[in-house]
Amino acid sequence: MPAKSGFRRLDAFTKTVEDARVRTTSGGIVTIASLLIVFYLVWGEWSDYRRISVHPELIVDKGRGERMEIHLNVSFPRIPCELLTLDVMDVSGEQQTGVKDGLSKVQLAPISEGGMPIQVTTLNLHGEAEASHLSPDYCGNCYGAPAPPTASKQNCCNTCEEVREAYASVSWAFGRGENVEQCEREHYSEKLDAQRGQGCRIEGGFRVNKVIGNFHIAPGRSFSNGAMHVHDLNNYLDVKEGEKSHTFTHQIHHLRFGPQLPETVTRSLGTRSNPWTNHHVNPLDQTEQVTDDPAFNYMYFVKVVSTSYLPLKWQAKASTLGGGGADELNDILPIGSHGRGEDGSLETHQYSVTSHKRSLSGGSDGDQGHKERLHAKGGIPGVFFSYDISPMKVINREERSKTFAGFLTGVCAVIGGTLTVAAAIDRGVYEGATRIRKLHQG
What we know:
The chain is an alpha+beta fold. Helices cover 23% and strands 30% of the residues. It is elongated, with a radius of gyration of 36 Å.
């Protein structure tokens, strides 16, 4: 007989001998049911462990010297592309006038003809090769204005575009280019007339400093007159008799600050009853405004909130979450690549917006039942977007719902709890059946 071990006294799991065990049909049924329940609950624990959820955090945005991309797609069905200019300015003093890089203008057929796209172009009405046939010694007149620094020949204005730039540099209105040799040679006014009645869609993106600023789409070339930013409105307001006037009726198909969010991210931000879409992040999408007044101004006041989306395997880097060190490199990257990390992280922006519109002739809103509401007189017709940067930043971080240790703990709890309850049920059924049998025998 083997010697007794000292560990026997510590055994909390006493055993019964095989002869003392009783197997019943009800016990087999309870066992099968308990195993099915265990498998179902363990599968639920595994699914819960594999599920990735997005946890938002709110921190102070400590970024410095950053830039951000603005992407837009806006249609103007009642104003031709040649008359539209996009300018950017901010509180740091930086101005971008006549922004073209990263943007394209799509000519739209007149509304009466369906308003469909005609041509996608940067719309150079003056022609890049118009002056190629001129004598090498030719030096065009700038008509009293200094030649622009971008002129193809120093101190000369050889094209209509260069004359327009020269006029803008001294804040002179240009008009249709009558009596300007270069414009008459390039048939500028005829090409301008050919676009009357057409519409325009501006699409693309551009970069701005991440400070308070505004960008606007207004008619005519812009220039500075003292401390004022003004536009040459001659061609916009000059409408022939019988023609419809130009107006800033517009539809904002899309406007976002930063990269577009993947659908997988927006789905994870919402709930089953209230799923998120990109409209939650870009509330101006599919906004439409209609007016018959050529002197009308639309203003959108945008509050921009920096937002980071960090995937499950994201690794912290020195330039992430407010470092700003990668923006010098991002400036030389193509439009659309800003804010996208190699590890799948995304630096973008959400925004909220309020809007206001008014006629430049001033007056009250009496026709709308608000006689007490007065509007200032004067201004520039167009669509203006003023954006302000929030000092806070939202970080949406992907995380697993539970750790692997939590998964193992849940599995053990499922198995132990299920078998304990099953044992109690089996014991109750067995005891009940035994009592009933004794009653019938007695």
